[in-house]
Every structure is written in C-alpha cells, then in structure tokens.
Amino acid sequence: MKKENGLKNKYVMSGLMVMFLFISTSTFAKDSKKNSNQDNLRMCRNKALNVAFLCDPQWKMQTIDDAVLVVIDSDPTVTLIIAKIDSHIQFLSQMSKPTLENLDQYADGFRLDRIKRGGKDYVEVKAFAKDNIDKRILDYYMVHDLKLYGVLFSVTPKENWDKYKFLIQEIKDSFKFVDG
C-alpha cells in the first residue's frame, strides 16, 4: 500500500521544528511556567494558514512552510502543530485506519473517531507515538477547501496529560479558518 508521503513528511518536519524550538527556548521555558495559564488566552491568527485559535501570547510560535508549531510548554513538552498537509485526501471519508497506520507515527492500538463539532467534521486520533511511547498524541484532521489540515497536539511525558487536557480541548474548540 502506498505511503501517504505528505502526511509522513509533515510529521518528520514537525519533529525537527520541535527540536529547534526546544533548543532555542531555554529562557522561554522558565517564563512560561510563571505566565502561561488559561486566563491569558486570546485569539491568535496565523495569516500564512488563515487560521485562528486560542493561545497565550507567551507561547513560542514558528511558521515553516504550511505549518505552525506552538510550544505550549517545554517542561513537560506540550506542543500544537497546525498544518496544511500535502495529500491526495480531499474528503474525510478517505481517512481510514490503514491510511493512518501507513504514517508509521502511531503506536499499535490507536483510536480513530469521526466527530462533528460546531458544524465541522473531524477525524480524531487518540494515540501514543510509535517512536516514543511516553508521548501522548491527540490529532484532529479536517478538510477545508478540498485540502487536508491537521491540528496535532502532543504531551511528553504522558503522565502530564491530565494537567493539559482541558487546555487542549479549549484550544481545539476555538480553532477556525478565517478569511485572508
């Protein structure tokens, strides 16, 4: 079965972005503990992707190509990646468990659900990273203007998931596409 190269490449690139930002944000890591909480959230807009979502102005953000990486926290590592994914997929019905298995990103036993919120359809993936079982992942895929997008969250180590799950839900629920 053919690999979904656009999806797989987005994960490789996102890993490199996380490493770059993690290395370059040592002072941010110290400040984020003091200043980042849900009271500081506001709508942020990424003009390159024409998306808006709740964020804290203290969070480190980097846009590379068709993706924005947000470092929510660096100890533990909590990230959000919003990506326009180069893919043949134009409809969510094309997203299947075998398609996601071919990404080789999710550990065995990941869960795929089709959900609808706010009038939008999503594919939700709850998983642990295949290459790091200590990383918990919550990914949302959606199609906008016949293009596949991913809103991808991760928390490492996974034991910290409960500390961030409500924040992640709030950010995900705020996500929207905006006019350029």
Please describe what this structure looks like.
It is a single chain. By secondary structure, this protein is an alpha+beta fold. It has a single domain (about 5-175), classed as Mog1/PsbP, alpha/beta/alpha sandwich (Protein Transport Mog1p, Chain A, 3-Layer(aba) Sandwich), CATH 3.40.1000. Helix content is about 25%, strand content about 40%. The chain contains four helices and ten strands. The protein has helices spanning about 5-25, 25-35, 95-100, 160-175, and strands spanning about 40-45, 50-55, 60-65, 65-75, 75-85, 110-115, 120-130, 130-145, 145-155, 175. Strands 3-4-5-9-8-7-6 form a seven-stranded antiparallel sheet, sandwiched between helices. Strand 6 (about 110-115) and strand 7 (about 120-130) form a beta hairpin.
- Topology-level CATH name: Protein Transport Mog1p, Chain A
In N-to-C order, the SSE pattern is HHEEEEEHEEEEHE
CATH superfamily: Mog1/PsbP, alpha/beta/alpha sandwich
User: Per CATH, which architecture?
Assistant: 3-Layer(aba) Sandwich
Number of helices: 4
The gyration radius over C-alpha positions equals: 15 Å
Order of strands in the sheet with the most strands? Answer: 3-4-5-9-8-7-6
Number of domains: 1
The overall strand count is 10
The helix content is 25-40%
Proportion of residues in extended strands:
35-45%
Separation, N- and C-terminal Cα atoms = 37 Å
CATH class: Alpha Beta
Structural class, from helix and strand content?
alpha+beta
Topology, please?
Blueprint: H1 5-24, H2 26-35, E1 42-46, E2 51-55, E3 60-64, E4 67-74, E5 77-85, H3 97-101, E6 111-117, E7 120-129, E8 132-144, E9 147-156, H4 161-174, E10 176-177
Antiparallel strand pairs: 1-2, 2-10, 3-4, 4-5, 5-9, 6-7, 7-8, 8-9
